[in-house]
Design a protein that fits this description.
5 helices; single chain; alpha+beta
Length: 152
C-alpha cells in the first residue's frame, strides 16, 4: 500500500484529540483504536506533546515503574506519529542489543528491517520503524516494545 507519506498534526494550536486523529487516519483509525486498547495490557501510556524541532505533535509511549527505593521511574519505549492514512511507531533499540533482538521470535521481514537499520550518528541506538495501517504488525511492535521496557 504505497501512498504519499505526509506527516500530519503540524499545527501547535490543534491538540491531537480522538476526532482530529480519526480524521487524519481515515480507514486506519480502527487499527489505532485497537493499538491504544492493547497499550494498557503492556503498561504503556501515551503522552502527546508538540515538538518545535520537528514541527509536529508526537506521542511518547511511556513505561513507568517504581524503583527499588520507591521512586517513580519512566522510560520512553517508542515514539508515535500520525501520518496521512497511517500511524508510525518508532522504537529505538540500543546498538549493543541488536544480536539479542535478532534472536526474538520475529517475522523475517522484521528481522531484515532490524539488520538493515543504521545506527543514528553518535547515538548508540538504531530505529525500528513500523508504518501501521492495520493490526498486522502489532505482535512485532509489542514484542519489541516489551523488549525495550526490559532494558530500563
Amino acid at each position: 500500500m504505497e501512498m504519499n507519506k505526509v506527516q500530519l498534526l503540524r499545527n501547535p494550536d490543534i491538540q491531537p484529540s480522538s476526532d482530529v486523529i480519526a480524521k487524519a487516519l481515515g480507514e486506519s483509525n480502527n487499527a489505532y483504536i485497537k493499538f491504544l486498547g492493547e497499550l494498557a495490557g503492556h503498561d504503556i501510556h501515551l503522552e502527546w506533546r508538540y515538538y518545535n524541532d520537528g514541527k509536529a505533535w508526537l506521542a511518547k509511549g511511556l513505561y513507568k515503574w517504581k524503583g527499588v527505593r520507591g521512586g517513580q521511574n519512566e522510560t520512553t519505549v517508542f515514539w508515535l506519529s500520525i501520518w496521512d492514512g497511517f500511524f508510525k511507531v518508532t522504537i529505538y533499540i540500543p546498538e549493543k542489543a541488536r544480536a539479542e533482538v535478532l534472536n526474538l521470535p520475529l517475522a523475517n521481514e522484521v528481522k531484515q528491517k532490524i539488520a538493515a537499520s543504521k545506527q543514528m550518528g553518535k547515538l548508540k541506538f538504531f530505529p525500528v520503524v513500523f508504518d501501521l495501517y492495520s493490526d498486522e504488525m502489532f505482535d512485532a511492535a509489542f514484542l519489541l516494545s516489551d523488549f525495550r521496557k526490559s532494558m530500563k
